[in-house]
Design a protein that fits this description.
With 505 residues, the protein is of the alpha+beta class. The protein has helices at residues 11-17, 25-35, 37-50, 52-57, 103-169, 175-210, 230-240, 242-263, 315-381, 387-421, 427-430, 440-447; strands at residues 22-23, 63-72, 86-99, 216-217, 268-279, 296-307. Helix 2 (25-35) packs across helix 5 and helix 9 (315-381) packs antiparallel against helix 10. The protein is elongated, with a radius of gyration of 38 Å. The two termini are 59 Å apart.
Length: 505
Amino acid sequence: MTTTRRLFVGAAMLAYASVAQAETLQEALLKAYQSNPTITAQRAAQRATDENVPIARSQGLPGVSANGGVTDNLVQANNSFFSPSRFGNASVNVALPIYSGGAVKNGVKAAETRVEAGRATLRSTEANLFTNVVAAYMNVIRDEAVVGLNQQNVRVLDTNLRASRDRFQVGDLTRTDVAQSEARLALANAQLQSAEAQLIASRETYVAVVGSPPAALETPPALPNLPDSPQTAVTTALDGNPTLAAARKQRDATRYDVAVARANRLPKVNLVTGGNYTNYLGSIPSLANGQSIAGSATSATAGVQFTLPLFQGGRPAAQVRQAEALRSQAIENETGAERTVISQTRSAYAMWQSSLQVITSSETAVNANKLSLEGVRAENSVGTRTILDILNAEQELLNSQVTLVTARRDAYVAGFALLAAMGQAEANDLGLEGGVLYDPTINYKRVRHKISDFGGDGEPDPVASTTADTPAQNATVTRALDPMLDTPVDRNPALTTGKASPDRQ
């Protein structure tokens, strides 16, 4: 483990250890890594890709076949003096390919290269899954904060409305002031309902990605090793992005495919040998002089078989052209993947930087709006501000608080997406603890040299966990508001008793 890898270990884990009944981002990532159907399906796909290597190798191994049968001649020719009425025959034939124009060698290389491409695709699937987990995790944290802020806003506006009604009763405010407070409270309740629905949706998405409902989610640790410039990020991504690596391997594999296609018009040489046994089953009569004929016969052959295709109706040339076109496609796909990686990396970097700036601005705005609200309240108490001014100040504070929590979510997700684009957000990078990480080379080594025609891995059992038994999610807030976002609802104890105060609304 180095300081440039293992994103979620070390000091961050020590900080989490003191929190009871809380779920960390690393725990969520580990759950998804072990039981998300997207990644378990991709692992199965990779195991299927591994089998292409022994399939390709089998074309260069000896082929052994056995034939047998019993024949009973029901009707025999009248002029046949030596024809058994029945006989049994058995033969064994062995063919060993000696030369196939390079088809076997290049076929094996193509299969091996596609195995490497599949491993890169599996890495890409891991990175995409982890990015989705981070987004789902941060969405729940953001939406919980937004619900908490809207609940707080409803409480503030409800307190304002009660105070406005009290002051209306003593003639300090007009009916218009009360109506404005009622309207703003109704709007706040509608916003709260919308925020709660969004929180439920985010929690259900979390269940779909992680496999279990979110508990009290802890604030994730800071992301290390983020680049200092978009060019640095792009340079790293071009070397380490798994999607691009997979496209490059697919391109390399097509070169061998062209060689395989060209081998179809080259000569082939096989060593062949065989043995034959025939038993006439006592159906051969003795000769006229009484001499008996052997009731069985054996034979054996061995030789070299040479095949030279002379004309195949244009099929080999068509196969070559097809393989060359597919190679051209793979080359263009690599260029397309490179463009996409560069675009995603630069976009993630820009989003990350922009969100960091929004965080700084929003923190300033939150603090300023808190002071502004206090000032407007004070000015209202001396008659220089209206109730509408207070309501607007409260709404501006809420808006800045929501902008801040959204920017924090966006910055973290964009930062993680940037690391994923750079090829630094996979299982080996995250320091996941809780079992051995999946190693795709284990299955490859297990099957590569298998030559038995019998066997299998059996009927597969489900690996990914079902979410059918998880309860429907709700909008209960499980996390306390950030102290910076927390704004006390009641700053005057007199309001809690229902008594109006001339310096409160």
